[in-house]
Amino acid sequence: MSMRQVSLLERMLAEQVKQTELLEQIAKNQAVLIQALADEQDVDVDDMPQAYLSGAPVHGGR
Predict the structure, then answer these.
(1) How far is CA 10 from CA 5, 17, 18, 42, in A?
(2) Cα 42 from Cα 52, distance rounded (Å)
(3) pLDDT tens digits, residue range 12-54?
(4) Residues 6 or more apart whose Cβ sits within 8 Å of residue 61
(5) In Å, how far are 19, 26, 29, 44, 51 from 16, measured between CA atoms?
(6) What's phi and psi for 51, nearest 5 deg?
(7) pLDDT score for 33
(8) Which among 7, 30, 61, 62 counts the fewest CB atoms within 10 Å?
(9) What span, in angstroms and rounded, lies between the C-alpha atoms of 58 and 31?
(10) How far apart are CA 37 and CA 52, in angstroms?
């Protein structure tokens, strides 16, 4: 492999590492936001939903 190819691969890897770090940070922030919203509304995040987003009832729930 030529030095030019190695250099290009190294730069691509460095960009992928940056992208992965940003995606991990976004996921972490979303988890914190979801937890904060659940706490604010006093919702048990482990509780089974009673209806689908369409409004149709979930069968087999409580």
Answers:
(1) 9, 11, 12, 48
(2) 19
(3) 999 999 999 999 999 999 999 988 888 877 666 677 778 898 9
(4) 48, 49, 50
(5) 5, 15, 20, 36, 40
(6) -150, 155
(7) 92
(8) 62
(9) 25
(10) 19
60: confidence class by pLDDT, cuts 50, 70, 90: low
**Of 35, 55, 56, whose CA–CA distance to 46 is shortest?**
35
CB-based contact 52:60 (threshold 8 Å): no
What pTM, to 2 d.p., does this model score? 0.57
Phi, psi of 61 (to 5 degrees): -80, -150
Is the torsion defined by CA of 24, 53, 40, 38 positive or negative? negative
